[in-house]
From TrEMBL:
Signal in keyword set: yes
SUPFAM superfamilies (alphabetical): YerB-like (SSF159774)
Name of the molecule in the record: DUF3048 domain-containing protein
Region (Disordered): 25-47
Extent of the signal sequence: 1-22
Keyword set, alphabetical order: Signal
Keyword Cell inner membrane found: no
InterPro entries: DUF3048_C, DUF3048_N, YerB-like_sf
Composition skew (Acidic residues), residue ranges: 28-43
Domain called DUF3048: residue spans: 56-196, 226-334
Length: 353
């Protein structure tokens, strides 16, 4: 699939070419308003002229979006692939659970797929990430630390332990624990049952405007591989499609796509974050530092650059020269990797000749 693939050391790339930084791609925080001026769009106007933006994608829309974010724990075991509903998520976080296995936190706001899953169990650091978007948090099961947080009401949530067979349905074509699914219809029913408010959108992220998009720079890379402990089953390859101007994602050689529709996951921002991980018990559960900030890589429009990451109001966001870096309007995937072995050993690029 990648006949030009070669793992190129990031250190070598930095020494030869440097990592170009452009302050024009880092913009200050805007007021938390998604309305963009004032004139009503005429019939036939393009997306750039629509008066509103979805807060987590920056994609323009005709009407203001007031939907609350919903964050769903999604299984990434090979027996759970392909998943359902991932292609509709605005943001996906990928982090290690126990062992060398990754799990997804998929955050939905601009789109609501009919079905999401397989749904998996909660961990405390995923709850923290969901809280940053004031999400309704969906999981099936929990670690002891996560159960304590949920029992204390730290975040509004629906859990399959309570609603297995009612809100959560078991698929016949897979075996437990890889067969728990929930529909957005049932998420809405559960929120109503628990009297959760669902009509307040999260605060908007920072997005590049059309002129800033034209000024994007960095080192060329047609694809990038993120390796979790050199485990091919959980390695991710992001390949930039120049015709679509989006990234496709592959795992273990397979395109990441929807189980039902076969629609691929298409991404506009790949954000790879390095932070401290520590195993805390005999089950291999981890403590992951999501507050200290540190090094990161940001991929946009087929180019990459080194940036910093910061936790800003509970969200993991890129910064350049201490200013938030604008995102390309669209969908974002965030890989959070251990600082040992770190970015140089975990991330490799395919460079076009």
């Amino acid at each position: 699939m990648f006949n030009r693939w070669m793992a190129v050391s990031i250190v070598a790339l930095l020494l030869v070419a440097g990592c170009t930084k452009n302050d024009n791609t880092a913009v200050e925080n805007e007021d938390e308003m998604t309305e963009i001026p004032e004139d009503e769009p005429e019939e036939g106007t393009n997306k750039e002229e629509l008066p509103y933006q979805f807060p987590l994608t920056g994609v323009r829309t005709e009407s203001k979006s007031g939907s609350r974010a919903v964050a769903v724990m999604i299984n990434n075991d090979p027996k759970a692939r392909p998943q359902s509903g991932l292609q509709k998520a605005d943001i996906v976080y990928e982090l290690l659970a126990e062992g060398n296995i990754t799990r997804f936190l998929a955050i939905y706001q601009s789109e609501q797929p009919e079905k999401v899953g397989p749904v998996r169990s909660a961990r405390d650091y995923y709850i923290e990430l969901a809280k940053g978007y004031d999400s309704l948090y969906i999981a099936h099961g929990y670690s002891p630390e996560a159960k304590d947080m949920l029992d204390k009401g730290y975040i509004d949530n629906l859990n399959g332990i309570t609603y297995d067979g009612t809100l959560f349905k078991r698929a016949s074509f897979r075996k437990a624990p890889h067969n728990s699914y929930i529909s957005f219809e049932n998420i809405r029913k559960g929120a109503e049952k628990r009297s959760y408010e669902m009509d307040e959108a999260p605060s908007p992220l920072t997005f590049l405007n059309s002129s800033e998009l034209g000024e994007l720079n960095g080192e060329d890379a047609s694809s990038v591989m993120v390796s979790y402990f050199n485990n091919n089953v959980f390695n991710s390859i992001y390949e930039y499609d120049e015709a679509l101007e989006k990234y496709k994602r592959y795992t273990n050689g397979e395109l990441t796509k929807d189980y039902e529709s076969e629609e691929p996951v298409l991404l506009d921002n790949i954000f790879i974050v390095e932070t401290n991980h520590k195993v805390i018990d005999n089950a291999g559960r981890r403590k992951i530092d999501l507050s200290s900030g540190g090094r990161a890589y940001l991929l946009q429009k087929g180019k990459w650059k080194e940036v910093k990451w910061e936790n800003i109001d509970g969200k993991i966001l890129p910064t350049i020269n201490e200013k938030q870096a604008g995102l390309v309007p669209g969908k974002t995937w965030i890989n959070i990797i251990p600082s040992s072995p770190g970015l140089e050993q975990t991330v490799s690029f395919d460079v076009k000749e």
